[in-house]
Specification:
Elements: H1 28-34, E1 41-45, E2 50-51, H2 56-66, E3 71-75, E4 94-98, H3 104-108, H4 134-145, E5 151-154, H5 155-159, E6 165-167, E7 172-174, H6 177-180, E8 185-187, H7 192-203, E9 217-221, E10 229-232, E11 292-296, H8 299-304, H9 306-318, E12 327-332, E13 335-339, H10 348-355, E14 362-363, H11 373-378, E15 381-383, E16 385-386, H12 397-401, E17 406-407, H13 410-421, E18 429-430, E19 432-434, E20 444-445, H14 448-453, E21 468-469, H15 473-483, E22 490-491, H16 499-502, H17 506-515, E23 520-526, H18 530-536, H19 541-557, E24 563-570, H20 577-589, E25 593-594, E26 598-599, H21 607-614, H22 635-645, H23 653-662, E27 681-682, E28 692-693, E29 706-707
Parallel strand pairs: 1-3, 1-4, 4-5, 5-8, 10-11, 11-12, 15-19, 18-22, 23-24, 24-26, 25-29, 27-28
Antiparallel strand pairs: 2-14, 6-7, 8-9, 9-13, 12-13, 16-17, 20-21
């Protein structure tokens, strides 16, 4: 993986003479106050503008400002006309379009496709302030406002829709969002490196259609690219852990030969929608690797064939390591969508630079006293890392941020904590010191060479890779230094703890339990049975039990009564009714009562979504006879699985009684403590069968709390 130029090494644009804005302007009046006659870049976002490094538009805006560009913000515009998109005038360089910190469809709809009543990223928590598929709508309105202005789309919504993708809300495979938005360029992943290069090259006089060589971007082209070696994606495979390494360029017969089999000299019949694929009768030379592109099945092919969709998903995830990924191309009608390899991760110096820009750490003054729930939740938190090498199949973090951890320096984190300490309203408590996970800070592969060649989707599944450095001591030192700072009363950890990693360092668990837990610690086993766990790529319950043993021991040593709050997902691919029943019995045995539960939501581009749509397992090679996955589909079965998680709710007892009888487990219906649900039904709590009674529900008292299940603003899929 070749190093990339530092993002702070560019020569600053001439507009740097205007200095740093207190807030990036949202109106012409603010531009006039700053002495601007125009904006170089205008960011359109579906979130309210909060100038805080936990908000994507603030990071991107401040990074581009530090490059010398004048950046304006259009936040949550009225999308019913183009007027709001013309408010700041035409940008000199480009519009940057994002749906915000969350996918707009996930933000607005529940896993049962019900409209949410609130929006944590809007003043007052008001729902309905952004359109469905915000990136598409915003880009089209910006195009109406200024037809000739370049449009660059990015953020998590665009990033996860960069190729043909299954859309849960319409139950169909949609084409790349780049085409529907009619944008010029798509930036995927964290975009600082790409956007700095785009801005400087446009400012230097290049046109937007010349920017076809930037990593972490996607663009369209009508004709084949000259000088590129094109590889059919069906010729690629991943070496198995027990077999000799397989040449990924080796040919395979159409039926799918075993790894290592000799290639066929005859070219197989092209699959539907892949007629333009060049099929080779030779291997690609190493010298040609940098100029090779993998042609994936077309949008039309994957839309018509779920097995091809699963194959395309597998190829996309195989080509995700910046150290060895090749370009991908996918045909949509008469247009190719071309994906360059992922961006080079930020270095520690670059991470420090990004997070130490001139953030005001507050909402824009135009919102007055209106509360923005997401900001209130994170205003006193500090991000210390990016990325996740867990690879959980239902999650979008790895797909968006990558699996190479990008960490800040200890000094930079301390400086930000001191800045937080000096902000108005600070109570002395840092609400979180983390990131996508709490305890991957400075963890990495022991060998850069191995890391650059690796194609494993996870560094911790099915077990922790022996090449992974699991030393938690840098994180422990950071915790100790943070809580020792003057004016800091407590440092809490609210990010999710990867407990299979934590048990590799009992000292870390001790530190966490005795100093950084406020009574409850959220962790996410997600499931207990091997069926769903193997499809989630999550560790077994033994790791949870070991972590709980350590956590309870160290809490007791400190004289603290503290509890673990486990999260579980209902209706995930691979989950049977029996799996959910066993989970319900485990919850009751351990005294957990979930107030809210999370059902699996098939987000775009996730591996679990490919399972949901195709019924196949893309974690293994996809063929017509490859492993099939049990999919809990349909409203009835999804509600049943959620009911098992809330076994204690009388409203769920009728459906649970019916299911238990069907499963031959009527022995779990009764009024004794060993029963899961009672045989009687309180009046007005679901109706139907059984004796009606107003007596209270009897349950085993354990002294354990109910399980809170709120939707944190940054949680993804």
């Amino acid at each position: 993986m070749d190093p990339a130029p530092d993002i702070f090494a560019y020569r600053r644009h001439w507009a740097a003479r205007f200095g740093t804005a207190p807030f990036l302007p949202m109106s012409r009046a603010e531009m006039d106050t700053l002495g601007w006659d125009s904006c170089d870049i205008i960011i359109v976002t579906g979130d309210a503008y909060v100038d805080h490094p936990s908000f994507g538009m603030a990071i991107v805006g401040r990074v581009l400002e530090a490059q010398g560009f004048r950046v304006g913000i259009i936040a949550q515009p009225d999308w019913h006309s183009a007027a709001a998109f013309a408010a700041l005038g035409r940008p000199n360089l480009f519009f940057g379009i994002t749906a915000g910190n969350m996918d707009s469809m996930v933000n607005r709809y529940t896993a049962d496709r019900r409209v949410r009543s609130d929006d944590a990223y809007t003043p007052g928590g008001e729902g309905g302030r952004r359109p469905d598929r915000s990136v598409i709508v915003y880009a089209q309105r910006a195009r109406e406002a200024f037809r000739d202005a370049p449009i660059v789309i990015g953020g998590i919504e665009a990033s996860l829709r960069r190729i043909a993708h299954f859309d849960y809300w319409s139950e169909k495979v949609r084409r790349s969002v780049l085409l529907d938005a009619r944008a010029d360029l798509l930036v995927y992943g964290n975009g600082e490196r790409q956007l700095c290069e785009i801005a400087h090259r446009l400012a230097a006089g290049e046109s937007i259609d010349q920017l076809t060589d930037i990593r972490g971007t996607a663009f369209t082209r009508k004709t084949a690219a000259a000088g590129w070696v094109e590889i059919d994606s069906t010729h690629l495979d991943t070496p198995g852990p027990l077999a000799p390494a397989v040449d990924p360029y080796a040919m395979a017969p159409a039926g799918g030969a075993a790894p290592g089999a000799a290639p066929s000299a005859a070219a197989p019949t092209p699959a539907a929608g892949t007629e333009r694929v060049v099929r080779f009768v030779r291997r690609v030379k190493n010298t040609e690797r940098a100029r090779s592109v993998i042609r994936m099945p077309s949008h039309e092919a994957v839309a018509a064939d779920p097995v091809l969709y699963a194959h395309a998903s597998r190829i996309l995830h195989m080509e995700a390591n910046p150290g060895n990924a090749r370009a991908l191309v996918q045909r949509h009608g008469d247009t190719d969508v071309w994906l360059n390899p992922p961006p080079i991760p930020l270095t520690t110096k670059e991470m420090d630079w990004v997070y130490e820009r001139a953030y005001h750490r507050a909402p824009h003054p135009s919102y007055g006293q209106a509360a923005i729930p997401a900001w209130k939740m994170i205003r006193f938190s500090v991000a210390i890392q990016r990325g996740c090498f867990g690879g959980c199949t239902f999650c979008s973090i790895t797909e968006h941020e990558g699996r190479i951890i990008q960490s800040r320096s200890e000094e930079s984190v301390v400086r930000e904590i001191e800045a937080v300490r000096d902000t108005p309203g600070f109570t002395g408590v840092i609400s979180d010191l983390g990131g996508p996970t709490a305890n991957m800070y400075r963890l990495a592969c022991r060998s850069r060479e191995i890391e650059s060649a690796c194609r494993r989707p996870s560094c911790v599944y099915p077990g922790i890779c022996p090449n992974l450095d699991t030393d938690h001591s840098p994180l422990i030192r950071l915790y100790r230094r943070a809580r020792a700072l003057p004016g800091i009363k407590k440092v809490l950890i609210a990010s999710g703890v990867r407990y299979d990693l934590a048990i590799e360092s009992p000292e870390y668990v001790k530190e966490l339990a005795q100093h950084h837990t406020g009574g409850y610690l959220k962790i996410a086993p997600e499931a207990l049975a091997e069926g769903p766990l193997s499809k989630m790529m999550k560790p077994g319950v033994a790791a949870y039990d070991r972590f709980k043993e350590l956590f309870d021991r160290y809490s007791k040593e400190a004289g603290k009564e503290q509890y673990l709050i486990p999260y579980f997902i209902a209706a995930h691919p691979g989950t049977s009714d029996q799996d959910m029943l066993e989970l319900a019995l485990w919850l009751k045995k351990n005294g957990f009562r979930a107030d809210q539960v999370q059902a699996f939501l098939p987000g775009p581009m996730a591996t679990a979504t490919a399972m949901y749509h195709s019924g196949r397992n893309p974690l293994r090679r996809i063929t017509r006879t490859s492993e099939e996955v049990l999919i809990p589909k349909g409203l009835k079965v999804r509600r049943l699985h959620k009911a098992f998680l809330r076994y204690h709710d009388p409203a769920n007892w009728p459906v649970l009684r019916e299911a238990l009888r069907r499963m031959g487990r009527a022995d779990l219906i009764g009024n004794a403590r060993h029963h899961l649900i009672p045989a009687w039904q309180p009046a007005g709590t679901g109706g139907g069968e059984g004796q009606r009674s107003t007596r209270p529900f009897r349950t085993q008292h354990t002294g354990l709390p109910r399980t809170p299940r709120s939707r944190p603003p940054g949680r993804r899929h």
